[in-house]
What we know:
Blueprint: H1 5-19, E1 30-32, E2 37-39, E3 58-60, E4 68-69, E5 82-84, E6 92-93, E7 106-108, E8 130-132, E9 140-141, E10 154-156, E11 164-165, E12 178-180, E13 188-189, E14 202-204, E15 212-213, E16 226-228, H2 239-243, E17 250-253, E18 259-260, H3 263-273, E19 278-280, E20 288-290, H4 305-352
Helix pairs in contact: 3-4
Amino acid sequence: MPVSGCTLLCVIPLLLNTASGFKLCPSDCICYESSALVDCQARGLLQVPPSVPHGTWMLDFNGNRLTEVRSRSFVGLWSLKILLMSNNSIQTVQPQSLSSLRFLERLDLSFNRLHWLPQDFSQSLSLLQQLQLDHNLLQHLDSYSLADFENLRKLDLSYNNIRVMDVRAFSSLSRLSLLNLEGNRLNVLKDGLLSRQQSLERLLLGHNNISGIETEALAPLRSLTLLGLQGNQLERIRFKTFMKLQTTTTHLLLSSNPWICDCELQRVFSKIQHVRRLRVYDYQDIVCHAPPVQAGSSLSSLDSQLCVAETASVLAITITVMLAVIGALVKAEHNRKHNQAVNDSESEKEEKL
């Protein structure tokens, strides 16, 4: 039976499409063949359509209703470089769900509901350069889930619930230039956590619960230009901790902490201000939390008053102690002379007898 011209014209594009490794465009999406971009944004979709063309290099799946990333969601999408899945309701990324995306360079999973990452999360994603996991519900980072991201440049983990991080969590991320951990629940910046981040340029730790920075925590950072520590629970800092930063120029953000303003704190900030490579960018906004007499005052407005007051107090105490010592010495000398006089008198009486 002869094939009609119309039928043949309809079949040929389908054959060409299949032969070149492409599938038909999903009905709910828009496919731009010239740029291999598939736009499925805000379509109310519950899963990734199975008919995404194999030649796609960018898939925009933002603003849908995904609750999980399934294990075979992206099989065959060998060319995919950018995958955007923010503003869904993703709670789970199943194991092996991303392992076929060997050429992926950017992954956006922000504004979802992830509580944890599978241990093989980074498997086969060695070319990934940008990962956005901000505004999720992550509580812990282990040493496995990020292990294969050897080319990662930008990692955004801001506004999660992270309290604990394995000290080796970032050990494979030697090319990282931006690490954003703002808005989490970290308490301490530990030695060894950033041991391989010599290329790190921006470290954002603002609005956590950080009350302490261990002495060697910042020592490996040779390229750091910005360190954000604003909005934490720092009461005091050690000059030695910041001197470990062997950088050309580093801007520090340190405002909105409950600073205890005394001579020691003022000396530390004064020393930092005199180190050419360190700049406290928000120094004018650093406000004293304690003691009560200084609460609400900016540290910069106090100039050297804290140390002058402390010096005056120390001097007053020193003078008081010295007067007490002198008084004691005078009294001792008086007693000695008195006792000597008594002894001499008794000796004279004995001689007369």
